[in-house]
Specification:
Number of strands: 0
Distance between the termini: 11 Å
Radius of gyration: 18 Å
Structural class: mainly alpha
Low-confidence stretches: none
Protein name: DUF3955 domain-containing protein
Number of domains: 1
Keywords: Membrane, Transmembrane, Transmembrane helix
Organism: Psychrobacter halodurans
């Protein structure tokens, strides 16, 4: 059975990929006056990626703990 942490991490990773794609498709160019045009999608992509890594790490820790102790925690 897949844990809720793993599913949440997968959702965060998908959101990070979508935010990164939105950033590359719609923003991130240099305007006519030489100013870099950025959006909120790049910071969102990094935040979602960090959350995905944390959730995957917690999922791995819980899986190892379950195997070592033999008890299931939800």
């Amino acid at each position: 059975m897949t844990s809720k942490l793993f599913i949440s991490g997968s959702i965060m990773l998908t959101l990070a990929a979508l935010s990164g794609l939105m950033e590359s498709l719609f923003y991130g160019d240099i305007g006519a006056d030489g100013v870099l045009q950025e959006s909120l999608f790049l910071p969102l992509a990094l935040i979602f990626l960090a959350l995905a890594i944390i959730l995957y790490g917690l999922s791995l820790i819980m899986q190892v703990k379950t195997r070592v102790t033999g008890t299931h925690m939800s």
